[in-house]
Specification:
The complex is a heterodimer of chains A (885) and B (113).
Chain A lengths: L6 H10 L2 H19 L3 H14 L16 H18 L1 H29 L11 E10 L2 E5 L6 H8 L3 E8 L7 E7 L6 E9 L1 H7 L3 E3 L11 E5 H7 L9 E4 L7 E7 L12 E4 L19 E6 L5 H23 L5 H4 L4 E6 L10 E2 L7 H28 L1 H13 L4 H38 L12 H25 L3 H6 L9 H34 L9 E5 L8 H10 L3 E6 L13 E5 L9 E8 L3 H5 L3 E4 L12 E5 H7 L8 E4 L5 E9 L13 E6 L5 E6 L4 H15 L7 E3 H8 L1 H35 L1 H9 L4 H35 L10 H28 L2 H5 L3
Parallel strand pairs in A: 2-13, 5-10, 7-9, 17-22, 19-21
Antiparallel strand pairs in A: 1-2, 1-11, 1-12, 3-5, 3-11, 4-5, 4-8, 6-9, 7-10, 8-9, 14-23, 14-24, 15-23, 16-17, 16-20, 18-21, 19-22, 20-21
Helix pairs in contact in A: 1-3, 2-3, 4-5, 4-13, 5-11, 5-13, 5-22, 11-14, 11-16, 11-22, 12-14, 13-14, 16-22, 16-24, 16-25, 22-25, 24-25
Chain B lengths: L7 H13 L5 H12 L5 H14 L2 E8 L7 E7 L1 H19 L2 H10 L1
Antiparallel strand pairs in B: 1-2
Helix pairs in contact in B: 1-2, 1-3, 2-3
Classes of the chains: A alpha+beta (885), B alpha+beta (113).
Chain lengths: 885, 113
């Protein structure tokens, strides 16, 4: 055999060499090789390589070829072909673009949500030095974090520690008049109910730095009984005037009028704390000696550290200092022998103000916040939906490769390089992606109001932001490139001869990859479906669980405290109305957001020797238990006939258990360390949920007392509107200057779980979206399969295959993929939802039927999607498929 | 401006092109160079010089016939241009002039002559 020059060297040479000299050079080298190989073929080969390397000289190396190409014309051609493809294959194109646009819209909405969540409290001046103080207590391993501190706490921090530049407090406790109040101008009679009252120090107001509209910030709250109101309240009560110095009356209390000291701009939605009325703490004391006593904790304390102070160091120093100097002596003074032990493990932490919104998990501050975990979860969901959409894009492009194969072959024959083809397909994919983005942005804009409702937000589309257009365009291009890369590489790799001979079959090579992508899509969808089911079940469980009181048919009249002493006759009149069963005056309702407190309880005589049991101390009237439909399990209810009941109490099972009372009836318990109030237990009420089911039921002690803001009315009528009318008429008689305000207990109860419901709704929406996108892909894929196997199906039909067998043939494969997805999805979703459920003390068990249901649903949807194409294929006349060759 | 000087190696190659006449293509020139000087040279180096000389205008080239040893590929035949010949002559004359000024050489020259 005649020796030949080494192939690789020759190919290498041809790749590097200028084309116009390639012939002569290869000729020369071959001649040289030929002459040498007569003596030694091996030496000749070595020499050939040596010669090749010696040709790597500037004069001989190929210049970058791009300078010869006319880019503009080429790209024009690419666009033309892309456009023709798009309009030729309307179904594929619309699924490709539509599915992608849906994914992009979902992503955009979620991105807006995340951006909004992350933008809380960024505008506060010195926000990097401003902290909220968090108290951590360790009660036998049970860690509890809260933000409630004693009145003198803030001032003590500032005076004892030079690192603290300033310290301020707010008091948002309804007990003292924060929250909602009836309000009117001093020169008017008509009361209006407004919410968003809090008490604050002048110093806190300085730190938080909300821009002023009227007034001087430094003096706005400096005078006793001054109040700062928001711009919108100023516009409402004092339209077109400067309200500084004007007087506001709350709850008809003319003894304590408020003078407006300033008007601030409205608190932005992205603030951890919301208020419209800021009442001053200057000169205010809620009971004699309150401001100097360390016995009560009702204040959120904020501190501004001096620049460069390490908060962690200060935390440690302060924890030790404050406990030794103030807390411990106070407890010892009250005679608590084991005070030192109680305080073991207690410490102070500083929470950056900017973290309050997202990172307050487990901190009891009674504010509503976001949750950083939700932000992550949403981000992940967005990412997955985008990936699903990208997968559709890739899947459809490769699936349709057979139809493009001839084009690729021909382009290669007329001299297209692979890089040209890659360029072409990338251009096409970027074009598709740009179209999808335009569509997706429009879609997101249209859907934003709905999404705002879902997520309880008030976001606006950032049309005016400068970054929108460049960001979207660069995202469109990069996503287009990523999604188009695989199809581009795959399609451009075809060998022209094979393609033109017709031996590239149907893009079948990549079917494993396509199957993998389908599995991924369906796994994601099924996880979302299962999660939706479980959230829905948990929600149903909460709403239908026996809560220990009857939440239905209870009307809550609010703001009745303005009636003053007339409240008793009002109640008596009310009970006489037809349809009213009973009525009770008490602000302490078994739903979140009503009045709460915290009291220490002891059995009588054990105050000095035992640790206190924490619990609620609720002032109720004689009809409370009856009106709320609570169940007395031991002893008796309060009775108006027995006068000594004013010194008696009813406790719930939890409190009885915590106090260690075996036979609680007749035992005497006390609240308050001084032991001033000693009550006899006359009854035990069955435990009822008065906070969210995320928490354990705490101890409650009911005692006769007046808390006159809310009047609960138990009704038994089917004609609610009629009842509301008669109650309103009665109210009008008693309080002509104040509109009636009422809600229903079951609504308030449902509101407690609004966040769970919201999450359920969001998950449902995204699950639906994910499944739609996945189904679009499956639909197009099955259509394509049918097209590819057209001849096969026709022949089968001719040979006598039944419609059923054709259907099975086309469907089975996909159903198998969905089943595989189900197998993968089950453990993932189980783990995810188990983690979520752990938030709830009262929760459902995840049972297997959820998975079966979700699986059936997924299979059903998948079959439905595919069956249209399969049945159509099975019913066509085989002649149409076979008549042309 | 185009470089028009002639280096020593270039001069040799130019001369070889003249010697080989119709057979003056890169491979042959390289072979000839090796056999005449005993120094080995790669075809690439030769080719590089040839194309430089062509750029300078001393050589001209056209595609020639193909042979079986070359795998049916044509070869590029180089011919000396008029300028090339003039430069060669000038180079030779210059060197002869230099030799003539060299006394030791003149003596020997006279003896043998």
């Amino acid at each position: 055999m005649k020796p030949v020059p080494p192939r690789f060297a020759e190919r290498f040479l041809l790749r590097c060499l200028r084309e116009d000299i390639a012939e002569e050079v290869v000729g020369d080298l071959t001649e040289k090789f030929d002459s040498m190989s007569k003596e030694s073929p091996f030496k000749a080969k070595i020499n050939y390589c040596f010669q090749v390397i010696n040709y790597l000289r500037p004069f001989a190396i190929r210049k970058s070829k791009s300078s010869y190409t006319n880019h503009y014309a080429m790209f024009q051609n690419y666009f033309k072909i892309a456009w023709r493809n798009l309009s030729n294959q309307k179904m594929y194109s619309s699924i490709k673009i539509g599915g992608f646009a849906l994914g992009i819209a979902a992503c955009l909405l979620i991105a807006l949500f995340i951006r909004d969540e992350l933008s809380y409290d960024l505008k506060i001046p010195n926000g990097d030095r401003l902290y909220r103080v968090v108290g951590v207590s360790n009660n036998n391993g049970e860690i509890r974090k809260d933000v409630w501190f004693q009145p003198p706490f803030a001032n003590a921090l500032k005076e004892d520690y030079s690192e603290v530049e300033s310290a301020g407090r707010i008091n948002p406790v309804e007990l003292f008049g924060a929250g909602g109040n009836e309000i009117r101008r001093a020169d008017q009679d008509q009361n209006t109910f407004e919410e968003g009252f809090i008490y604050a120090d002048q110093e806190w107001f300085d730190m938080i730095g909300i821009p002023m509209v009227y007034g001087n910030r430094a003096r706005a709250l400096a005078v006793p009984n001054s109040i700062v109101i928001s711009k919108r309240m100023s516009d409402k009560y004092f339209p077109n005037e400067n309200p500084i110095g004007k007087i506001l009356i709350t709850n008809n209390n003319e003894d304590r009028p408020f003078t407006i000291g300033g008007v601030i701009e409205d608190i932005p939605a992205t603030s951890h704390i919301h208020f419209d009325f800021l009442m001053t703490m200057t000169g205010r004391e809620f009971w004699p000696g309150e401001q100097t006593s360390w016995g009560s904790s009702n204040y959120h304390t904020y501190i501004l550290l001096r620049p460069g102070i390490d908060p962690i160091e200060l935390e440690k120093k302060m924890t030790k200092g404050v406990i030794e100097k103030y807390i411990l002596p106070d407890l010892l003074k009250d005679g608590l022998v084991n005070a030192r032990e109680v305080l073991k493990g207690a410490r102070l932490e500083f929470q950056p103000v900017r973290d309050i919104h997202l990172r307050s998990e487990g901190i009891h501050d009674r504010l509503t916040h976001g949750d950083i975990r939700f932000v992550w979860l949403f981000g992940a969901v967005a990412g997955f939906i985008l990936i699903i959409a990208c997968i559709n894009f890739i899947n459809l492009s490769t699936a349709r490769s057979a139809n493009r194969a001839k084009e690729v072959g021909l382009r290669k024959v007329v001299g297209s390089f692979r890089s040209n083809l890659i360029n072409q397909f990338l251009t096409e994919s970027v074009l598709f992606s740009l179209l999808s983005f335009v569509l997706g942005i429009l879609l997101a804009w249209l859907l934003l109001p709905y999404f705002n409702f879902l997520a309880a937000k008030s976001m606006i589309f950032p049309w005016k932001e400068w970054w929108l257009v460049p960001l979207m365009i660069s995202a469109a291009i990069s996503i287009g490139c990523i999604a188009g890369l695989y199809p581009a590489l795959y399609l451009s790799g075809f060998k022209p001869i094979q393609v033109l001979k017709g031996s590239v079959s149907a893009g079948s090579k990549s079917s494993t990859l396509r199957s993998g992508l389908v599995v991924f899509q369906f796994t994601t969808s099924i996880v979302l479906i299962i999660s939706t089911f479980i959230i829905d079940r948990q929600m149903g469980y909460i709403l239908n669980k026996k809560v220990g009181f009857e939440k239905d048919q209870v009307m809550l009249l609010q703001g009745v405290n303005t009636l003053g002493e007339k409240i008793i006759p009002f109640k008596e009149e009310l009970v006489r109305l037809p349809g009213v069963e009973s009525a009770s005056i008490s602000d302490y309702l078994p739903v979140t957001g009503s009045k709460r407190n915290g009291n220490p309880f002891w059995q009588e005589g054990k105050t000095k020797t035992e640790k206190a049991v924490g619990g609620q101390f609720w002032r109720v009237d004689h009809d409370y238990v009856k009106t709320m439909g609570m169940k007395i399990v031991d002893g008796r209810d309060f009775s108006i006939e027995i006068r000594s009941d004013s010194q008696a109490c009813i406790i719930n099972q939890t409190l009885a258990r915590k106090l260690g009372l075996k036979n609680p009836i007749g035992e005497r318990i006390t609240n308050g360390s001084s032991g001033s109030r000693i009550m006899e237990v006359i009854g035990v009420v069955e435990d009822f949920h008065f906070e969210s089911m995320k928490e354990n039921i705490g101890g409650v002690c009911l005692a006769i007392g007046r808390s006159p803001s809310v009047l609960s009315v138990k009704v038994s009528t089917t004609d609610m509107p009629q009842l509301v009318t008669s109650v309103s008429a009665l109210w009008k008689d008693f309080s002509p200057n104040q509109p009636i305000r009422y809600t229903f207990l079951d609504d308030r109860f449902a509101m407690m779980y609004a966040d769970v419901q919201r999450m359920g709704r969001i998950f449902t929406s995204f699950a639906v979206l994910a499944i739609i996108v996945a189904c679009l892909g499956l639909f197009a894929l099955s259509a394509f399969m049918v097209e590819q196997r057209n001849k096969e199906i026709s022949i089968r039909l001719v040979l006598g295959a039944s419609v059923k067998s054709i259907f099975n043939l086309l469907t089975l494969n996909f159903v198998l993929l969905v089943l595989v997805s189900l197998l993968i999805a089950m453990p993932i979703s189980w783990y995810m939802m188990q983690t979520w459920l752990e938030d709830f003390v009262y929760r459902i068990e995840i049972t297997w039927d959820v998975f079966v249901l979700a699986g059936l649903m997924a299979v059903f949807i998948a079959i439905l999607t595919i069956s249209y194409q399969s049945i159509r294929a099975a019913l066509t006349n085989p002649a149409t498929g076979l008549r042309s060759e | 401006m185009k470089e028009t000087r002639l280096g020593e190696f270039e001069e040799v190659i130019l001369l070889l092109v003249g010697i080989l006449g119709e057979e003056a293509y890169a491979f042959k020139i390289a072979e000839e160079f090796e056999s005449q000087t005993g120094r080995s040279i790669s075809i690439g180096a030769t080719h590089s010089t040839l194309s430089r000389l062509e750029d300078k205008g001393f050589l001209d080239s056209k595609m020639g016939a193909s042979t079986a040893q070359r795998g049916g590929r044509r070869k590029r035949i180089y011919t000396i241009t008029a300028i090339g010949k003039r430069v060669l002559a000038a180079s030779r004359d210059f060197k002869v002039a230099l030799w003539k000024q060299y006394p030791a050489f003149q003596i020997r020259f006279q003896i043998t002559n």
